Amino acid sequence: MAPTILDRMAVRGAAWIVFLGRLAIAALYVPSGFNKLVHLGSFADSMAARSVPAPMLLAVVGAAVEFLGSLAILVGFRTRYAALLMIAFTIVASVVSHHFWDIDDVTRQMQYVQFMKNMAIIAGLLFLFAHGAGSISLDARK
Q1: Structural domain includes residue 11
Q2: DSSP string spanning the chain?
Q3: Number of domains forming the structure of the chain
Q4: In a domain, 118, yes or no
């Protein structure tokens, strides 16, 4: 079957498409991670309220992972490792923050939507892991 115009556009624009995908992922995580780093006490308090053990230690680790992992994705530095790290972070954050299966009130639907949104983000990170950072990245400069 002959390639369609969309196939040719995707192939020709692959470098920029992957870069834009990395930018979109970073746009979500970089500000959130930075905010957590700047307000570590508040982040630790929110974790303690969810009965997370060692909330201050895990707040430091979580904020650093979210911020530094997303910066690595943004610039395309060790992108496959960063994608796996961000997948793990997103899974943990989803289970800790969006446990819709334990909720019976009106917030259940909202938490379900947030949880499923995170699963979609994980799907994007899986694509990034499988395909790498693309040619517009620090990984490509090696």
Answers
A1: no
A2: -PPPHHHHHHHHTHHHHHHHHHHHHHHHHHHHHHHHHHTHHHHHHHHHHTT-SSHHHHHHHHHHHHHHHHHHHHHTSSHHHHHHHHHHHHHHHHHHH--GGG--STHHHHHHHHHHHHHHHHHHHHHHHHH-S-SSSSGGG-
A3: 1
A4: yes
